[in-house]
Amino acid sequence: MHKTPSVSIVRALTSVVLTLAAGAFIWIATPASAGNEVYTSGIRCNNKQSGGREFNKDWYVYFDTNSSKVRPEDYDKIKHIYGIAKGHHAQQICLFGKASKVGGVEGNANLGENRARNVARQFEALGWPNSKIVIGTEGEAWGWMTEMLTSDAEEDRRVLIRLSQ
Fold first, then answer.
1. How far is it, in rounded angstroms, from Cα 95 to Cα 45?
2. Would you give the DSSP letter of residue 101?
3. What is the DSSP string of 11-58?
4. Residue 17 φ/ψ, nearest 5 degrees
5. What is the pTM of this model?
6. Strand partners, 97
7. DSSP 3-state of 153
8. Chain mean position to CA 61
9. Helices (H) and strands (E) in the chain — how many of each?
10. pLDDT digits (tens, 9 = 90+) for 139-156
11. Going by DSSP bridges, is the β-strand pair 58-62/133-140 parallel, antiparallel, or unpaired?
């Protein structure tokens, strides 16, 4: 005998599928520069990326688990980005720290901010003025997701670097 699923189960599954599809569409259709950015430095990132290809690019510095120390292999990348910012007369370097879902929400927000601050120190050491650096934290990667996603992926332990006109 063939059983058909109940109407309520079909409706519930349809609702879940539609919700996931809508979320995926919004995530895919939203440009990287339009992300939710929280600023802790007291300065707002202008987010004006019209200065050419270099201003439409996001760079990333990655971190070890539970660490805010910039890896030595990223010093050259930061120096390269500094050169682009200086050469293209950027008005700001915007830094947004992030942490993985492992750990508590508040601790991860602090870790993300500390990561951004340590990257800022690298730019300052190269001569970029502190007044032109925006520091923000995005806290946990996928922070709006349920506890199902608790991985500690390197791509979640990062600072996003964006140049702004």
1. 9
2. S
3. HHHHHHHHHHHHHHHHHHHS-GGGS---B-SS--------SSGGGG-E
4. -60, -45
5. 0.69
6. 137, 159
7. coil
8. 10
9. 3, 4
10. 765 544 545 555 677 778
11. unpaired
